[in-house]
Specification:
This protein is mostly helical. It is 60% helix and 0% strand. The chain contains 3 helices and no strands.
Length: 62
């Protein structure tokens, strides 16, 4: 029976996964941090933007 060699993934795959996990957690827990990147002059942040980041978990910023 033939054995399949283990697949090695490049470091960039793990780096991208880490970035997406961070953005998703930040979008869910603290969306104001991500909103300031898009609209730094607006205080307080738009409630629609807060809702969107919580709904999609920050994937809109990725």
């Amino acid at each position: 029976m033939a054995t399949v060699p283990p697949v090695t993934r490049p470091v960039s795959v793990y780096l991208l996964a880490g970035i997406r996990l961070f953005n998703g957690a930040a979008g869910l827990l603290k969306p104001e941090l991500l909103i300031r990147r898009f609209d730094p002059d607006r205080e307080p942040p738009s409630l629609a933007a807060v809702y969107t980041f919580r709904l999609f978990g920050g994937t809109a910023s990725s």
